[in-house]
Please model this.
Amino acid sequence: MFDKEVRLPNPQTSTALGQLLNNRVSTKEYHGPEDLDEQTISDLLWAAFGKNKKGTRTIPTALNQKELGVFLVSDKGAWRYNGEENTLSKVSDEDILPYISEQDYVKEASLHFIYTGSNREYSPLHAGSAYQNVYLAAEEKGLNSVVRAYIDKEGLKKP
Ligand SMILES: Cc1cc2nc3c(=O)[nH]c(=O)nc-3n(C[C@H](O)[C@H](O)[C@H](O)COP(=O)(O)O)c2cc1C
Model:
């Protein structure tokens, strides 16, 4: 198809997707939690793992098992996102932010998503697809975002 080495045409960064990808960056400075409106929260969750018009999800999943948990977390508690129904169900009234805020800047962010799964091989891949979608959806809305693995996973497991 190609010779051994070839310079490719410049990427087309002027398209809607090209601009989002071109601007994608992890932000580690936030300036205090703000209340985001429900539409914004819905759009971000939908990007992560919502149902699309093809009847599938915004991300592919291994064996089409849709094996990914997505939780919304704020200082008011935690909610599980149901992408099939586009609903949120409260799963905790507790402020679990201390378990996910080991880095100081995190406390200043407006909301947090937690991705869970039980498939050692595939769940991290599904989470990767979801958080990349969230980066792009956030960028489109002029919001900052960062994915983080540095959280207290054992603490979160406590009832
Ligand atoms: C799987 C994964 C885990 C990450 N965990 C953390 C984290 O715990 N804390 C943090 O501040 N950044 C975390 N990051 C963000 C990276 O530091 C960031 O993506 C990297 O510095 C590259 O910057 P960029 O995203 O702007 O290209 C993580 C990124 C990935 C992909």
User: Anything to note?
Assistant: Residues 28-157 form a domain with the NADH Oxidase fold (CATH 3.40.109.10). Residues 25-26, 28, 103, 146-150 surround flavin mononucleotide (CB under 6 Å). The radius of gyration is 17 Å.
